[in-house]
Each structure stands twice: as C-alpha cells, then as structure tokens.
Amino acid sequence: MDFCTWLNLVFQNRKHDFGEIPATTAWALWQANNKSTMEGKRQSFQDICSIIFSIIKEMRELNDKILAPMNAMNSIWKPPQEPFVKVNFDVLFKTTLHHSYSGFVIKNSRGLPIGCGSIFNKFVSDSFTTKAIACLQALDFVREMSFTHVKMEGDSRTTIVKINQVLPDFSDMGTYIEEIKIKVSSFQHISFYHIDRRVNMVSHMLAKERMSMREDRFWVEDLPTAAEIHLAIDLSRLVSHI
C-alpha cells in the first residue's frame, strides 16, 4: 500500500494513541532531511530518536495540562493589582513569507496603557515560534521600562505551557522559550497566563498595525487609534462587570 493509505490505517487504530508515534517520526525525518538539504546539518539516528521521544512526551504532558475548555475562559480583561503591571502580547504570521508582526502592551492597575510596541520579524519558521518571539520581545520591553512585578498574558496555550514547564524544549521554538526562562530571573515577581483571544485584542491590533508601518514603533502612555478602540471595549466590559 502507499504511505497515505498506511497512515490512515494507523490513525484508525486508536489503541494507546499509537498514531502519534509514526506521525511524529515522519515529521522528524522530514525535518532532518530539510536540515541536511538546506543547512548542511546531518542528524544521527540517535539524535532523531531523541527528538521523537521528547516531542511525544511533551505532547502527552501538554494534553494532561489542558483541562479547561476554551469557552469556559474569562472573556473580560482584568487589571492587575499594584505593584504589578500586566503585559499582553500577540502576533500575526505570514506563512508564505515567513514574516511575523509582534504586538504588546503594558497596562497598569486601572487598565490604562503605560507603554506598547509593534515589531517586524523576518525568517520565522512557523506560527508557534512567532508566539514565543512576541513574548520574548514583550519581556525585553517591560524590562527596559524597569518594571519588576509583572503578569504576562498571551492567547497561545502552547507557548504559555512551554514557558511554565520545567523540562527543556527541543522544538523549533525551544531556543526562544529557554531565553525567556533565563530573562525571568531579572524580575522580582513574574508569571505567565493563557487567556481568551477576545481579551487580547489590544495587542492583536498592535501587531496588525505593524503591517502598515515602515519601521518598528514604541509608544509611552499612548496607543495607535485602532488599538484604542479595543482598549475602550475592555474598559467598558470591566465597568459593566463591576
């Protein structure tokens, strides 16, 4: 039989979640071939097996942690309590060009913007990596503004879980995840949370704004007009909820 027929039969056998093993193996072999062809980097049999096992282990751990359904998440953005600030980040990704656009905003205990930014990134491998890059850039920005008590929020569950887990990350985004973990030590208190996309629209609009700008931009106590609209929505929901 051909590969597609065989793979369909594999996934029909749900015993012990066996389908994840050949699927992950096929992906790892494809990645190894790409690295060899495009970058001249050859991976040993042992290296490929190690990557396969670590990815499968990580996926199983992620599935164990993902318990709450998306529709049960809070749809109202909540301000932090002093002395904390809250940082929201998001990203847009152009798959064909491998370009990403990061957006992030820092808000105070009244829900008002302290600072925000929009950054363009080239040569980004995949959508998961873009989220980690956006988080890292937001982290750098809030550190440059000298805040020490920070709550980070993003709507990528995978990114947040990877940051919070102790195990090392061997995926393409792993380099950025490990860099985030290193920079965490420069804050007195910092935590990372997964949130509903509906309460992350200010940072989403900041990422979208970068697509129409010629260069990276940063604002202090201000927002571009498109993002201000969603800030007003967040604040109105907060008031009505109270």
Automatic annotation (TrEMBL):
GO terms for molecular function: nucleic acid binding; RNA-DNA hybrid ribonuclease activity. InterPro entries: RNase_H-like_dom_plant, RNase_H-like_EbsB-rel, RNaseH_domain, RNaseH_sf. Residues 88-209 form the RNase H type-1 domain. It comes from the Eukaryota. It holds the Pfam family RVT_3. This is RNase H type-1 domain-containing protein.
